[in-house]
């Protein structure tokens, strides 16, 4: 039996999300990796941090490396996430590059998305970089998490992706103090190394993040405060259980522990056994199996619902594909996609059920960890109730789906976020409604985009947030520029009344006036804008176009 000592009121783990900078005091087991990545990033122009799904790359960066470097006085930008979306109507932007917007708006959260969208990465960074007081530029450390999104073909966004990579390469050449860290999964390492050649950084410094050693896993679990009758620890027993693989009549012990499985098991012990006086080894095994079984079943049920598949179909596919020895040896990627769409396989990896490996030049998928095999065999075919996250988390899922190019899934997540949002929380409701307008805009559905933006503007009016209403009116006006310039003029005049100093709004108004045949008024607007900013690209082009048609 393993007895449990009294527990404090606060759980020593963060649940199933990644650790962030606020969790740095709870982040354990990665001391060596934290120092290694910090040293590499500070001393190399380009570093590629890679590892499998669920291995803890984001946690290492957010709760380990970044706080360490900041504590030493380094100039570390906030971590950029490729799925990041500022709360701003994208239709209001004259030039919307989703890759540039995601990175620069992450690095400089207080910067206006309008200003981010108007200049190149290099120009923007030169404006922002600071002096350290010794008449030299300190290294500017910038990280991009989930960088595989920008390294792989992007369908309808391919033109923007290529333009963004060109800008990033130019910025690296123009700014010798910029140190870039790209965070990718193992299967995107090849693309990252290839991109390094464009940056003049071939071969790049690379760091492979592996699952936890038993000693590191013990360090993570030890704060649970579990002790045994003869002095042994439940932390040690739990770590051993997560390394124990039972297949048929044989038992094997793996050399590493997957962090995501450790978080799962730790969370269940904390939630269900905190008041127990002792934990038998048999019960520990059962509790771990229950945690892992629920993890597998819930994620598969959620993926099935998201992709309109019967849960039983997805369960059967997953068991047949990854439940036997082939799940440990690796399934060729092409074979894994024979019976389900590629988006489903990607979602299964995103849910930390499988991981990708490149072997002999080919891509394979394997079970995240062999320890999942035992509970996987206990899953039936019946769907289980899905526990959806709250509105804010659901909105982040919508952002991720949009970044992945799945507009329909993004819409469904965003609509669910709106339905789940309390009417008392007007600002969040307005942001979510405006994002539905963004999705419609990116789908090319102008009528729905305008309707969603109008709804969001009405909510922001009640907040009240005058500037937010102004930008939504700007988005509506820009959408209507081509097909209804007269109405566009009305909307943009109203926007300009709320945002009188925003040259982007004035320029859009000038364009609408020109489209409506009011060339003299349009020219006056452009001259006013250029009088305040002679390099305003949109105004220069619009004035030149107007002169050619006048």
From TrEMBL:
Record-annotated Novel STAND NTPase domain positions: 12-272
One Pfam family of this chain: nSTAND1
SUPFAM superfamilies linked: P-loop containing nucleoside triphosphate hydrolases, TPR-like
Annotated transmembrane regions: none
Signal peptide bounds: none
Source taxon at top rank: Bacteria
Coiled coil stretches, renumbered: none
Annotated InterPro entries: nSTAND1, P-loop_NTPase, TPR-like_helical_dom_sf
Name the record gives this protein: Tetratricopeptide repeat protein
UniProt organism field: Actinomadura latina
């Amino acid at each position: 039996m393993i007895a449990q000592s009294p527990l404090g009121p606060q759980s020593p783990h963060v649940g199933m999300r990644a650790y962030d900078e606020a969790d740095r005091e709870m982040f354990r087991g990665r001391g060596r990796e934290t120092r290694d990545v910090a040293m590499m990033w500070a001393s190399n122009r380009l570093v590629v941090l890679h590892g499998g799904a669920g291995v803890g790359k984001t946690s290492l960066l957010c709760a380990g490396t970044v706080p360490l470097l900041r504590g030493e006085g380094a100039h570390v930008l906030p971590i950029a996430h490729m799925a990041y979306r500022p709360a701003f109507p994208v239709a209001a932007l004259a030039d919307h590059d989703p890759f540039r917007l995601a990175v620069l708006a992450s690095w400089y959260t207080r910067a206006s998305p309008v200003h981010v969208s108007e200049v190149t990465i290099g120009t923007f960074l030169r404006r922002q970089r600071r002096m350290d007081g010794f008449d030299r530029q300190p290294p500017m450390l910038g990280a991009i998490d989930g960088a595989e999104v920008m390294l792989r073909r992007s369908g309808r966004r391919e033109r923007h992706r290529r333009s963004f990579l060109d800008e990033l390469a130019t910025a690296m050449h123009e700014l010798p103090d910029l140190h870039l860290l790209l965070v990718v999964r193992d299967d995107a390492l090849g693309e990252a190394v290839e991109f390094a050649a464009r940056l003049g950084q071939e071969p790049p410094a690379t760091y492979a993040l592996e699952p936890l050693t038993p000693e590191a896993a013990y360090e993570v679990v030890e704060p649970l405060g579990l002790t045994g009758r003869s002095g042994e620890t439940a932390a040690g027993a739990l770590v051993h259980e997560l390394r124990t693989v039972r297949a048929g009549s044989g038992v094997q012990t793996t050399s590493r522990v997957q962090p995501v499985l450790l978080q799962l098991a730790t969370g269940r012990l904390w939630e269900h056994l905190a008041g127990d006086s002792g934990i038998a080894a048999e019960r520990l095994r059962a509790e771990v199996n229950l945690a892992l079984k629920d993890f597998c079943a819930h994620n598969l049920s959620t993926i099935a619902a998201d992709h309109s598949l019967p849960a039983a179909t997805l369960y059967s596919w997953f068991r047949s594909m990854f439940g036997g020895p082939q799940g440990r040896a690796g399934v060729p990627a092409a074979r894994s996609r024979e019976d389900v769409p590629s988006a489903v396989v990607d979602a299964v990896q995103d849910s930390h059920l499988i991981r990708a490996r490149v072997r002999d030049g080919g891509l394979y998928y394997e079970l995240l960890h062999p320890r999942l095999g035992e509970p996987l065999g206990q899953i039936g075919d019946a769907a289980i109730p899905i526990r959806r996250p709250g509105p804010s988390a659901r909105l982040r899922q919508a952002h991720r789906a949009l970044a992945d190019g799945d507009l329909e899934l993004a819409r469904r997540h965003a609509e669910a976020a709106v339905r789940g949002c309390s009417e008392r929380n007007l600002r969040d409701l307005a942001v979510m409604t405006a994002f539905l307008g963004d999705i419609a805009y990116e789908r090319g559905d102008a009528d729905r985009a305008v309707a969603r933006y109008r709804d969001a503007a009405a909510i922001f009016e009640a907040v009240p947030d005058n500037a937010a209403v102004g930008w939504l009116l700007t988005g509506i006006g820009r959408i209507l520029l081509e097909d209804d310039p007269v109405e566009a003029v009305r909307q943009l005049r109203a926007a300009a009344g709320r945002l009188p100093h925003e040259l982007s709004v004035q320029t859009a108004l000038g364009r609408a006036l020109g489209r409506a045949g009011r060339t003299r008024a349009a020219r006056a607007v452009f001259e006013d804008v250029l009088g305040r900013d002679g390099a305003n690209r949109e105004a220069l082009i619009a004035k030149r176009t107007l002169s050619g048609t006048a």
